[in-house]
Inverse folding.
């Protein structure tokens, strides 16, 4: 990684809501525990038998518990380091449903703050991204510097003597770390380090992110669109589902094939492996010695011999190109077209997809553009494959609220018992066509959902 | 009429930005913001916004005015007149001359 950006680790209280190492004033506030009812979800996921209860996609209380116990303690993807070049560069995104601002401070530290004014709670930055010197709330004008300090309060003399600006800075996300250009953060005050939480998943991610010493950058902005469907439908598919490709994407595959009749038999009936991570990550990839990038300009530029030397034959013949992957809980990517995306939860029935195109910094401009256009044609809001995926997820969600429907279990049994060490790829793998990584995804989800998070320690 | 003070090289001030001069250097009541418009011209105003404590030298300079970085009040570069809320009071302008790439300030002299 060549970025000069240094992530920071902020001090935090057990409650985790104390930006700038100061306690968040609570005064006489004392939140009743009944505001947060907790469900035992162990009966909703049978990861050994391969069954999932549809309430995990539809129930409002399950969803609220996800925000508290799955999203709040997990490492969540924020942005690419390439988006922060100069002090004051910022990017607004979400962690779960919490709006956050990612900024590069004057000391070139990457920090993330809750994008909510400490006065009345409006966002202090309403722009998607940009360059700034302060974040000034457009409601009453409380203004915060790039380190989140409250630096200006109009009519400050109107507050009591006990008012101290130092206590009312932006709430800082306590931990922010990067991995090969990807920025992740967590509200967890004592997290397992990012690299450790990725485990063997990092090996598969490097097949996209570590082609050479220069690393990657993102081009073409951030595409954002709304889908009716639970966020897990997308996250699990990218973890575990090559199975849908020939059926769902049949028409797209036919259009893109030279004959118009679809790809050859050996392409349709591909064999490969699926990586199954104990922390809920997953990646599937066809395996073939001649696997290649689909965009011709990219393929022509790639030095596969050099990649074999750097990444090893197994990675070049597998996860380098065709395939899919999810970093638990809601970051996914597609190596062949450089699509990286996050599935932002927006209630149980809706998600927002934010997608970037990642390319190698070292690629000539025409190669980068070829990859961008290939990604645009296949995935993203105008992508012919993306349309099929979004339609599937919305279809599954649209009917799942039916009373009888909701109680009918879903089948995740493909590849039951197939998980093994294959001697070629690190960690546990299953077949290319398998639900194994999906079962692991939901097992991890169930564990987190049934584990009290740090912030539940000091509720009444 | 004071003598001019050599305060900066023109190249020290990026177009659209400003630098703050300490009052110990300028001998003025307030620090002075040396501001360079996007057309290349250089202007000087009292640095502290008349609304709240903020440095206009950190503001955005464009199209004949500076916008405060804190609450977006605007001031005319030429005469210091306030051009937008929340500030309501004018700020004080000072004369500036650029000669041979050097920026000379004439504190408390009207432009």
């Amino acid at each position: 990684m060549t970025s000069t950006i240094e992530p920071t680790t902020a001090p935090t209280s057990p409650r985790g809501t104390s930006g700038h190492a100061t306690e968040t004033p609570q005064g006489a506030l004392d939140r009743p525990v009944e505001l947060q009812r907790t469900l035992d979800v162990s009966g909703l996921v049978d990861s050994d038998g391969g069954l999932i209860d549809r309430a995990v996609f539809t129930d409002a209380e399950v969803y609220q518990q996800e925000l508290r116990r799955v999203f709040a303690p997990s490492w969540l993807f924020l942005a690419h380091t390439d988006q922060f070049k100069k002090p004051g560069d910022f990017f607004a995104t979400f962690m779960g449903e919490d709006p956050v601002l990612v900024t590069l401070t004057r000391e070139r530290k990457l920090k993330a703050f809750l994008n909510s004014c400490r006065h009345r709670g409006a966002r202090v930055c309403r722009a998607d991204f940009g360059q700034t010197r302060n974040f000034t709330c457009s409601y009453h004008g409380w203004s915060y510097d790039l380190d989140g300090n409250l630096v200006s309060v109009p009519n400050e003399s109107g507050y009591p003597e006990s008012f101290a600006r130092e206590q009312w800075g932006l709430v800082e996300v306590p931990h922010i770390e990067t991995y090969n250009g990807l920025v992740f953060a967590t509200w967890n005050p004592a997290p397992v380090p990012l690299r450790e939480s990725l485990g063997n998943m990092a090996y598969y991610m490097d097949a996209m992110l570590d082609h050479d010493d220069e690393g990657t950058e993102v081009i073409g902005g951030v595409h954002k669109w709304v889908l009716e469907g639970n966020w897990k439908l997308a996250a699990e598919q990218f973890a575990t589902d090559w199975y849908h490709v020939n059926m769902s994407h049949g028409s797209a595959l036919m259009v893109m094939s030279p004959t118009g009749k679809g790809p050859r038999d050996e392409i349709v009936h591909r064999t490969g492996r699926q990586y199954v991570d104990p922390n809920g990550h997953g990646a599937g990839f066809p395996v073939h010695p001649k696997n290649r990038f689909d965009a011709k300009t990219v393929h022509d530029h790639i030095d596969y011999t050099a990649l074999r030397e750097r990444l090893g034959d197994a990675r070049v013949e597998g996860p380098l190109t065709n395939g899919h992957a999810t970093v638990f809980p809601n970051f996914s990517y597609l190596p062949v077209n450089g699509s990286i995306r996050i599935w932002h939860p927006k209630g149980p029935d809706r998600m927002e997809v934010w997608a970037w195109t990642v390319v190698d910094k070292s690629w000539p401009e025409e190669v980068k553009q070829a990859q961008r256009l290939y990604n645009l044609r296949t995935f993203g809001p105008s992508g012919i494959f993306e349309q099929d995926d979004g339609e599937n997820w919305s279809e599954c969600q649209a009917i799942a609220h039916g009373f009888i429907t909701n109680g009918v279990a879903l089948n995740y049994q493909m590849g039951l018992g197939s998980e093994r060490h294959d001697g070629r790829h690190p960690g546990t793998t299953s077949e290319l066509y398998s639900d194994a990584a999906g079962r692991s995804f939901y097992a991890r989800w169930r564990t987190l959902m049934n584990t009290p998070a740090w912030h539940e320690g000091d509720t009444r | 009429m004071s003598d001019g003070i050599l305060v900066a090289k023109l190249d020290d001030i990026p177009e659209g930005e400003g630098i703050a001069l300490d009052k110990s250097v300028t001998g003025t009541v307030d620090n002075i913001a040396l501001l360079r418009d996007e057309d290349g011209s250089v202007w000087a105003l009292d640095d502290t916004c008349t609304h709240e404590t903020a440095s206009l030298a950190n503001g955005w300079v464009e199209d004949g005015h500076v916008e405060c970085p804190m609450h977006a009040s605007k001031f005319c570069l030429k005469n210091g007149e306030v051009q937008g809320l929340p500030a309501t009071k004018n700020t004080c302008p000072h004369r500036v001359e650029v000669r041979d790439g050097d920026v000379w300030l004439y504190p408390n002299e009207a432009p």
Summary: DSSP finds one helix and ten strands in chain B. The radius of gyration of chain B is 12 Å.
